[in-house]
Every structure is written in C-alpha cells, then in structure tokens.
TrEMBL record:
Protein name as annotated: Carbohydrate ABC transporter permease
Keywords carried by this UniProt record: Cell membrane, Membrane, Transmembrane, Transmembrane helix, Transport
Family classification: Belongs to the binding-protein-dependent transport system permease family.
Organism per entry: Scopulibacillus cellulosilyticus
Subcellular localization: Cell membrane
Length: 280
C-alpha cells in the first residue's frame, strides 16, 4: 500500500469517527440525562467535561414515572399494535398488488402503476386534510382504524415487490398452473417464500414509518387511549416547565427499540433494497 492510499484511508476513518461522535454524543447525553435527577441534568453542561456524560447519582425515577404516572405502557402497546398490524397488512396487500402488476396483464396497468409511483412522491402534508375528512366521514377519528388503514397501502412497498417479482421466470408460475395450483397457492407457497429479503425490507420500512409517525397520529387521535409514542413525547413540555429527565427517558426508549429490531435484520434489509436495482 503506497503512502497516498494510506493517507486517504486515514482521512476517511477520521471523518467517520467525527461523524460517529456527532451522532453518538447526543444519544449518550440523552441516556445519561434520563438517569439523573431533574435538577442535575443541565448542571454539568457548560463546560463539557466527563461529568457531562457520567452521572454522579443514578436514579431510575424518570423511567418509573413513565409507566406509573404517564401511562407509557399503554403508549407502547398502541405503538407496537399499530406498527405490527400495519406491517402485516401492508406486506399482504402490497405484495399482492405488486404480483398483479408484475405478472398479470390488464387494462390501465401502466397508468395505475404510475399512480402508485406518484403516491410515495407526494408530501403527506398535501393530503393530510383530505385524508382527515375521509376518516371523519367514515367515523374512524380517534380509533385504531385511522392509524392503521391509511398506512397499509404503501407505494414504495409495492414498487419494491414488483421489481423483485419481475425478475422471477414466468416458467415457474406456468409450471405450477399446469400442475393445477391456484393463484393463491402459487402466491403463498412459491412466490412469497422466495422474497424473504424484500419482505424484511418492506416490513422494516413500514414499522419504522409507523414508529416515527407524529403528524398523522396527532391529527387523527384525540384521547389518551390511542396515543402513540411520538405524540406522547410532546406531553413532557408544559406551560411552565419541561420535565427533561422523563422526556430523555422516553427518547431513549423511542430510539432504542427500533435499533434493537433493525440491527439483527440489517443485512436482509440491504440485500432486499439491492435486489430491486435490477433493470427490466
């Protein structure tokens, strides 16, 4: 390895370390602050020393208060319930629609697929009011339906599955049809088992999208009964004060759970996205 190449690698590693510090330090500060008493959180912020990231007195009061006084158990249940059902139905309907776009010929197919592509390019803010009016007319405001149903039909999920299904040989399906297999059997026993990376990628995208959703749950729900985690985190700021230690504790939970889910599955996620890069 020549000197120029070695210098280039050292430079890249240096910038990676700096970038990692920029990302990790705020998360570390949030974790440490969630374990401090409320009065100690900003006591060691300026100047920044080791005491900024090492608490003198560790307390789990903030976490206890989340579940005993803030009803965070219900919030977590709501968030998981909404996210998991969205993943299940989003994968089911998205893959079925993609299978139709990839392997069937029908009138208006290209126009419909163009609408699907356009759907995930439109900012949510542009459809929030019409969507709320529709949900209100259906009587779904402040229900699980309002949180789950609008997120099930995801254009990006359909696109990912379609790109994968296009690469599957038609002879595979034709041979199954000759053997008497129904379309449902072909879909469930032949097609879906072949697209595990795509399914994991789509599932993670749907899960993270729902886990991080704030604007729509804030619009569509009103009561504590259906509150999800991102909306619940706004409750720690009151008219006169901010309960920082509980806010940081909720933040730690909010970012830690997706990380624990994504990390073991990241290789499938990358593989699933890479498989959609093939040309027709």
């Amino acid at each position: 390895m020549d000197k120029t190449s070695r210098t280039s690698k050292v430079t890249i590693y240096f910038f990676h370390i700096i970038l990692a510090c920029i990302i990790v330090f705020p998360l570390l500060f949030a974790l440490v602050s969630s374990l401090r008493p409320l009065n100690d959180i900003f006591k060691y912020v300026a100047p920044v020393t080791l005491k900024t990231f090492i608490p003198n007195h560790i307390t789990f009061e903030a976490y206890v208060n989340l579940f005993t006084k803030r009803g965070f158990g219900t919030v977590l249940f709501n968030t998981f319930f909404v996210a998991i059902l969205t993943v299940i139905f989003g994968i089911l309907f998205g893959s079925m629609a993609a299978f139709a776009f990839a392997k069937f010929e029908f009138k208006g197919k290209n126009i419909l697929f163009a609408i699907v592509l356009f759907s995930f390019m439109v900012p949510f803010e542009a459809i929030a009011i019409p969507l709320y009016n529709l949900i209100n007319d259906l009587g779904w405001v402040d229900t699980y339906y309002s949180l789950i149903v609008p997120a099930v039909a995801n254009g990006l999920v359909i696109f990912l599955y379609r790109q994968f299904f296009i690469e599957l040989p038609d002879s595979l399906i034709e041979s199954a049809r000759i053997d008497g297999a129904s379309w449902w059997k072909i879909y469930t026993t032949i097609i879906m088992p072949l697209c595990k990376p795509i399914t994991i990628s789509a599932g993670l995208m749907l899960f993270i999208s729902q886990w991080e959703s704030f604007m729509w749950p804030l619009i569509a729900t009103r009561s504590q009964e259906y509150k999800v985690i991102q909306v619940a985190m706004s409750d720690f700021t009151t008219e006169h004060a901010t309960i920082w230690n509980e806010m940081f504790a909720a933040t730690v939970i909010a970012f830690l759970i997706p990380i624990l889910i994504v990390m073991p599955l990241q290789r499938y996620f990358v593989r699933g996205l890479a498989n959609t890069g093939n040309k027709e």
